[in-house]
Amino acid sequence: DAKTTQPTSMDCAEGRAANLPCNHSTISGNEYVYWYRQIHSQGPQYIIHGLKNNETNEMASLIITEDRKSSTLILPHATLRDTAVYYCIVRPRTSGSARQLTFGSGTQLTVLP
Amino acid sequence: DADVTQTPRNRITKTGKRIMLECSQTKGHDRMYWYRQDPGLGLRLIYYSFDVKDINKGEISDGYSVSRQAQAKFSLSLESAIPNQTALYFCATSDFARGGETQYFGPGTRLLVL
Question: What whole-number distance in Å separates Cα of residue A33 and Cα of residue A73?
Answer without folding.
Answer: 10
